[in-house]
User: Which sequence fits this backbone?
DNA sequence: ATGGAGGCGCACA
DNA sequence: CTGTGCGCCTCCA
């Protein structure tokens, strides 16, 4: 699916130590208002994928819960290991860590 | 074709 | 802070 491919290409551009929101990824990929599809695309990834799925969070800077227990803890672990800081309310300081891509395409 | 169900987002209360 | 409702667009049974 071209939609998924664009989403993956965009997620791959998120630098280490930064996060992006679902809606942001959708818009950058050229599919505004497709935030939920980003979630679909990421959930379709295999465990061995090299795509930094863990750098995608919701618009509030929280890790979206996804049924499987422990998976959100794992995501948080990955983010913290690359320097992303969480506040008390298990939220990320987006002012500080939100990815602000340059306009030029990689 | 059709109806639920999503790793969402935003506006309110 | 939590909860609810609605719009959004695909996926899948």
Assistant:
């Amino acid at each position: 699916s071209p939609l998924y491919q664009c989403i993956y290409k965009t997620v791959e551009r998120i630098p280490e130590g930064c996060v992006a929101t679902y809606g942001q990824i959708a818009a950058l990929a050229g599919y505004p208002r497709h935030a939920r599809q980003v979630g679909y695309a990421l959930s379709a990834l295999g465990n061995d994928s090299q795509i930094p799925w863990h750098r995608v969070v919701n618009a509030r800077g929280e890790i979206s819960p996804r049924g499987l227990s422990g998976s959100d803890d794992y995501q948080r672990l990955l983010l913290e290991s690359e320097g992303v800081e969480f506040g008390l309310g298990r939220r990320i300081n987006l002012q500080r860590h939100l990815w602000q891509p340059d306009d030029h395409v990689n």
